[in-house]
Structures are given as structure tokens and as C-alpha cells.
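Try it yourself: sequence plus 6-phosphogluconic acid, in.
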Amino acid sequence: MATITEHFFESKEVMTSKLAMLLENELSEAIRTSNQAVLGVSGGSSPKAAYEYLSTVNLGWANITVAMVDERWVDASHEKSNEAFIKATLLQNFGAAASFVTMKNSAPTAILGHSDVEYAYRAIGKPFDVTILGMDSDGHTASLFPHADGLEEALKTDNLTAAINAIESEVTGSITERMTLSLNGIATSKHVILLISGEDKKAVYEQAKAGGVVEDMPLRAVLNQKDLKLTVFWSP
Ligand SMILES: O=C(O)[C@H](O)[C@@H](O)[C@H](O)[C@H](O)COP(=O)(O)O
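Structure, out:
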């Protein structure tokens, strides 16, 4: 089991300010101690305001590497691109000086593009200091989707990343082909923050935590991960 610390906030605003403060402190500390900080970022509505705020803080962004946690296999100009979202929120203002590691390249499929993505993630050369994960009502986190093609590999590989083809659902929408941090990629992070929004997803989180089949709710693989420092932030 991961070492889990849970914070249930009374509002989205409070969660945002606590998240921004945590990121500010941990990235600054990583720069102080090793001259470089690495931040893994997810899309979703939960971290948006914290990203926007953080971009306005002069953290020494030239020493920060921002890397995607997961991505749809679409170009960065696509409206569903997580990269586009990160560029429009976090990589603005002072944040524009950060180095950015994409999960998308010109290969026609995620499987064909995977080796270049893996190469780029290994080239970061340092474990992620902080990794931000989201989760949804199907129990997915990063792009570890229930019973997806590639899930088994993503859960057992020593690689940092994996190609996924999810089963289409209301949560995935029509774009099911994705790249993601593998379970190993998540587990090598020094600190993982799981963001959960709303009562429904809180119930899903509690269900995942109670145990059961990992492939049904891949979030369980993260919760079960030994030696992982996991902080859960929930807001209504
Ligand atoms: O790539 C994606 O599909 C999204 O980034 C997704 O995984 C998101 O993190 C969750 O759906 C939680 O979203 P909320 O933060 O909006 O609850």
C-alpha cells in the first residue's frame, strides 16, 4: 500500500491554494537541493486554477522541467490535447521559461510513437519531484483505463511510459488512443498528488481504496504501490 495522506477541503478555492502552495514549496526545494525540478502534469479541471496561478510565480522556471503524465494521440493543436491545456495554463507568464516534455510525436499511432516518447522521458535523467494525477468515475488515473489494450503492459513494464488504447466510454470520448506514464513511471516519482473533484469521484476513490480487481479500477495499482508517497486532495 502507498503511504496515503488525505486532505478533504471545503471548497475548490481552498484546494487550489493548498495545491499551489505545495507545488511552490516542493519545486523550490528541488531547485535548491539539486538545481533542477521535474513536475509531471495531468489535464482535467481540478488542477487548472493552480496551474494558472503558479505560472505567475517566479519560481526559477528555467530550472523546471514540465512533463505530461498522459496524452491523447492528437496533435497539440487539437482541442482535446492535454499539452494544449498545459501550454495555455501553466506554461504562460514566468512558466513559459520551463522546459517541456511532450508525449506526442509525428508517428501515426501511439504504439509506433512509444519508443521516442520513452527515450525522451528517460533523457529527463531525474525522478519526478512531484506528479499530479487526476481520476475519473471509471477508476482511471493517468491514461491507465480499465481493461484497455496495453494496460497489462503499462502495469508491469520497467519503462516509464506506455501506449494505451482505451475501451471507448463516456469518460474517454471518441479518442481512445493515448500515451501515459506507466505504473513504474508514476511510482518513481518522489511525491504523487491525486486530485479528486466531487462527491461521485470521492465514492469511486473510496471504492478503489477498499480493494478489488486492479484492471476494473486501475487507480488501485497506484494506491497499492508500496513505497509511494501519495497525497490525496479532494474538493466538492
Ligand atoms: O486526459 C484526460 O482524460 C484527463 O486529464 C483526465 O484523466 C482527468 O484528469 C480526469 O478526468 C479528472 O478530471 P477532473 O479534474 O476534471 O475531475
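One thing you can check immediately is this: Helices lie at 12-34, 48-54, 82-89, 110-123, 151-156, 183-187, 199-209, 219-223.
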